[in-house]
Amino acid sequence: MNSLDKQYTDLLQDILDNGVTKKDRTGTGTISVFGRQIRHKMSEGFPVISTKKIYFKGVVTELLWFLSGSTNVKFLVDNDCHIWDGDCYQAYLKGWEHAKKLQKSFSSEEEYQEYLSDIKILTQEEFINRIKTDDEFAYEFGNLGKIYGHQWRNWDVYNQNVFDSLRYNKKYPGIDQITNLINDLKTNPDSRRLMVNAWNPSDLETSVLPPCHYGFQVYTRELSIKERAKLANENNYNNSKIRFGINPEYVDENDFELVRVLNVRGVPKRAISLMYNARSQDVPLGTPFNISSYGLLLEIIGKMVNMVPDELIANMGDCHIYLNQIDGIKEQLTREPYPLATLKHSKTDDFYKSLSDDLSLLTHLTNTDFELENYQSHPTIKMPLSN
Predict the structure, then answer these.
(1) Which residues pair with 220 in a beta bridge?
(2) Is 99 a residue whose pLDDT tops 60?
(3) Residues taking part in catalysis
(4) Which domains, and CATH codes, for the chain?
């Protein structure tokens, strides 16, 4: 059994065996444990579990949406990713309920009733179809508030410039945490401040959902010459078809000529790891998605700064299974995992180098630019998502 699937299924069994029953905001009810961790070596394969099929295209689509800075669900809907549909629809219903309470603002009952007839409530299916087909409607009702994308790329700045902003109608850009992270990785890779935060207390009440995975930190280390030689043997750097005919086990750490050749070939000098923190984890549905998403983010960042992905770490607070998911989990625990898949990038190293200098090129990345090779999995297990 691969280590990732084992850790994941062990966590599911842990919750079943040791979880306490808790109420939750959805009214469904959960069994829950607190404070768990999953660690995965990226060299063992891409982190996508195999005991049920994961919708990888959806993983890619959501991550690219985060990285773009967008918070409107239309991008997801247009790309057949529907994991945020329920939250967006719930926000729409709350707005509709608020609209129904505006009776006092109308001059007559007739005018109020006419207004209500114009805002006829839609079913979720009708709502999502309207998002997809009506740009004006999507602009008004598709925004989810200042969630991940906004915080990652445009964290609001409140400082001494606020007065000038109000007085002189100046607009001060927010903090682009992703750009800052990439720049710091290139200029100060040993920094202990390589962090991106999504938990902004001032924006929680106006977002459809507070961030579940609320921040991540990256860490880099220098690779030994042996590690770099092994990479050179296993990979095709700079589109060179010539492989190193050397055994990394017998490499001299003081072989400066080899170092020169490795540098010329562009073989990474550093390994990069990523650790994300989550306050809340719907372990049957959310955790597999988050693990693959941050694994993909680690791969993308590694490509941008020419570092080899090393370790992915998930730190999780409230780890829960909804009561209506238990039967599906029991079925999943009977399944034998498959070997892990590998990730294939269609974009070149030169593209990622350009991307590291200009994040506007993110628009050139699509959910077809990443492919899982040799991905084997058991069938999908339909489990309810509680909104």
Answers:
(1) 272
(2) no
(3) 212
(4) 3-69+174-223+268-373 (3.30.572.10), 72-144 (no CATH)
